[in-house]
Backbone:
């Protein structure tokens, strides 16, 4: 009997070491209200990681400062995050690795004027921009510069704390144009009954797709590696990390192909979002789960563009190879 127990315990320890079979009581995942987080909610709903964790807890972060505080304190395990913010944290010594890139296009212009078809058409306009000096702002400015425009002289840029504030300014008619990320664009269109074609004249229009402009300016597909999932360094279990990546990829596919159900699920969990707007937004977001190592070339190209505008936007330099989690 003693030999049997000893052998069983030894095999259990070996299995745990090799395959990570020891379950966690709770896995804490943080993310914004944006599309990158939505597959996580499906993972929670379907108990997709029941083999490795008893429970998944989702914590919402509302702005980049809140996100940085969460990761530095170390009270999250996985985080849905803009890729440049992950690079900043890594360069500042935070033990964080990028697992994947899942959001390759989420930025667009929304306007009260349906005649504006390119960024050049917005010259001289007053535009609301969320998150000053963060990734959406930098992408926008770099595109303007590459098209021969001066962001300071040719536009009146009004910076706001977050996309919800910009959306409210549009709805309240305090501003006529804004740079937004989905699902905020679809929410604004829904709230003003401007979708997809209103019987009366719509108040707002879906305008320039920044990814399309990016493709034209840089002569590529237009995919921009904007957001994905990162793992915090205290998570050492390779099997757990692999399982998270597998289930996130599956839930992302479900999200893409089931917009109605996805809208209901997300709105049930994040009460600031409207289920119809979520459903609308899915068709306008470029979604595909690509591992960080596979996306490294695109990430470094993107990071170099951000660095050209503001080195602080990626933490001063390209992240080292250890930033990219290797499966």
Residues:
């Amino acid at each position: 009997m003693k030999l049997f127990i000893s052998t069983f315990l030894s095999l259990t320890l070996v299995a745990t070491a090799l395959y990570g079979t020891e379950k966690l009581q709770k896995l804490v995942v943080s993310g914004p209200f944006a599309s990158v987080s939505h597959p996580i909610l499906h993972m929670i709903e379907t108990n997709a990681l029941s083999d490795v964790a008893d429970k998944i807890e989702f914590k919402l972060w509302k702005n980049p400062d809140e996100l940085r505080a969460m990761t530095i304190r170390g009270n999250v395990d996985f985080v849905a995050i803009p890729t440049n913010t992950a690079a900043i944290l890594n360069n500042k010594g935070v033990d964080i690795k990028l697992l994947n890139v899942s959001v390759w296009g989420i930025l667009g212009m929304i306007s009260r004027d349906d005649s504006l078809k390119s960024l050049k058409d917005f010259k001289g306009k007053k535009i609301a921009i969320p998150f000053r000096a963060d990734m959406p702002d930098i992408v926008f400015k770099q595109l303007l510069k590459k098209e021969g425009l001066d962001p300071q002289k040719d536009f009146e840029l009004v910076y706001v704390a977050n996309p919800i504030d910009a959306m409210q300014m549009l709805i309240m008619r305090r501003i006529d144009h804004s740079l937004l990320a989905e699902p905020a664009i679809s929410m604004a269109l829904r709230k003003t009954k401007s979708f997809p074609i209103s019987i009366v004249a719509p108040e707002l229009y879906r305008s320039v797709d920044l990814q399309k402009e990016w493709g034209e300016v840089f002569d590529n597909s237009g995919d921009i590696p904007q957001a994905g999932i990162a793992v915090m360094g205290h998570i050492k279990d390779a099997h757990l990390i692999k399982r998270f990546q597998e289930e996130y990829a599956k839930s992302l596919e479900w999200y893409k192909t089931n917009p109605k159900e996805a809208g209901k699920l997300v709105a049930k969990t994040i009460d600031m979002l409207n289920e119809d707007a979520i459903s609308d937004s899915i068709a306008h977001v470029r979604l595909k789960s690509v591992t960080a190592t596979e996306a490294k070339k695109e990430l470094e190209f993107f990071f170099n563009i951000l660095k050209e505008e503001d080195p602080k936007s990626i933490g001063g330099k390209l992240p080292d190879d250890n930033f990219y989690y290797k499966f």
The first strand starts at residue 27 and ends at 31.
